[in-house]
Amino acid sequence: MAALKDISNLDDIKQMVDTFYDSVRKDDLLGPIFNDKLQGRWPEHLQKMYGFWQTILFDVRAYSGSPFPPHKQLPVDKTHFDRWVMLFNTSIDAQFSGILTEEAKMRAANMAYMFNHKIDYFRGLENK
User: Fold this and answer.
1) Taking burial as the number of CB atoms within 10 A of a residue's CB, which of 8, 20, 21, 62 is the most buried?
2) Which distant-in-sequence residues (6+ apart) come within 8 Å of 77 by Cβ?
3) Which residue has better confidence, 81 or 118?
4) Which UniProt keywords apply (predicted)?
């Protein structure tokens, strides 16, 4: 088996994002949430994710905005974020290997942790 290459360009990001979100769509825990929220707007979401990861990994200003607000009201908890990270890591590890690959996995894990923490925080405020 040939050695896996690192993420190195926009085409790699598109491959990473498309493969990952294909697994999310099919997942019994995450699929219903994403499919309900996006309702046919997957192409727009994927385009946004290409820009997001291009900005994070290549320091190219291809994404603007705040990624948290669209996730704030989703019916998710730590279980969902753990599954999201597991699917992300499984997907990316099957395709790539290297410094930027590890950076992407670290950034994804940090985002999942932060989003989960912020959602819990806001829910706590609402329940006071």
Assistant:
1) 20
2) 116, 119, 120
3) 81
4) Heme, Iron, Metal-binding, Transport
